[in-house]
Amino acid sequence: MTVKTIQVAQNALNANREVAAQNRAAFDSARVVAVNLMASPGAGKTWLIERTIEELKGKIRIGMINSDTSPAVMDAERAERAGAVTVHLNTAGRCHLDAGMMRDAIDCLPLREIDLLFVENIGNLVCPAAWQLGTHLSVLIASTPEGDDKPYKYPRMYSGADALVINKIDLLPCVSFNLDYFRRGVEALNQGMKTFPLSCRSGEGLGRWLDWIAFLAARETAVLQ
Amino acid sequence: MHELGVVEGIREIAVLHARSAGASRILSLRVAIAESWTYLEDALAVFWADVCSLSEAAGARIEFVPVPGEWLCLDCSKSFADGREVCRCPECGSQWVKPNDALECYVESIEVETGGG
């Protein structure tokens, strides 16, 4: 028997990144635009997905991978009722999705019957930021009742997102949320990030979000063709 | 609980390198973790004991080596290294800082046992 030391010097998340690249290839091959939705619990991820599916029905075929830390499937059922092809992922307590879980969910989806796939990550402002899934875009959803200090407290999450939704703006008169202070924090971390202030309840600002989602789906398909 | 995913990643990398070297067993690992990264070392150790059990890494000793994280001050744009959990910019004293590290957690080396002399 011989004992020897091997120099490795590799990031512990490399294995996940390799699987994420395979997931991306599967999306590209099926011409599906995949969007990772991240937020704290209660920010309105499912609500936004539900409203988007309802409003774009007949224009875009939307799929959803819903994740929860438990077997509770009520969110997936909401998206399904709205008209999306849906897969529910029970992470059994894990606080984020990873590329391997995504791969398993992708296997259960009819990708060629979907134009745009929403991936509803676990409600958490820390862990999901570190794990690539293979999606094309990451969208962060903030909501006004959470408070305006979140960019300052969770910089990784705000740094890594491609777009930001500020949900529940109809509650601005009722909650302590300084929009200018919030925006300053976001701008310092992610200059020029596309931002969608809206309310899923009242529908205010929703049109601009829907236009962007429709644009994304069409653009990606055209590019891939 | 992202520590579970981290130790799974560590195991995959270690096992891959051990197999490439023709090793029959992994004896120990040395893993560097940036202090600016959010993790619980106790949780890493507990999950490691479970995750490595059915592989060449079963029973392997794992050493986590904290390395100072890199930070960027969002008030004055100074980059600095600081190992403390609550850090302030050494230039302007601001607490408004963000982690600026690419290598959050990496496997530095593994010690393996091979069959040959």
General description of the model:
The complex is a heterodimer of chains A (225) and B (117). Chain A is globular, with a radius of gyration of 18 Å. Chain A contains eight helices and eight strands. Chain A has a domain at 14-140 and 205-224: P-loop containing nucleotide triphosphate hydrolases (Rossmann fold, 3-Layer(aba) Sandwich), CATH 3.40.50. The longest helix of chain A is centred in the C-terminal third of the chain and has 19 residues, at 206-224. Chain A has helices at residues 14-30, 45-56, 74-82, 99-107, 150-153, 155-160, 179-189, 206-224, and strands at 2-11, 33-39, 62-68, 85-90, 116-120, 137-143, 163-167, 194-197. In chain A, 39% of the residues lie in helices and 23% in strands. A seven-stranded parallel beta sheet of chain A has the order 4-3-5-2-6-7-8, sandwiched between helices. Chain B starts with a helix and ends with a strand. In chain B, the strands form two sheets. Chain B has a three-stranded mixed beta sheet, with helices on one face. In chain B, strands 4-3-5 form a three-stranded antiparallel beta sheet, with no helix packed on it. The mean pLDDT of chain B is 85. The radius of gyration of chain B is 17 Å and the shape is elongated. Chain B is α+β, with helices and mostly antiparallel strands and 117 residues long. Chain B is built from two helices and six strands, in the order αβαβββββ. In chain B, 26% of the residues lie in helices and 35% in strands. In chain B, 34% of the residues are buried. β1 (2-11) of chain A pairs antiparallel with β6 (105-114) of chain B.
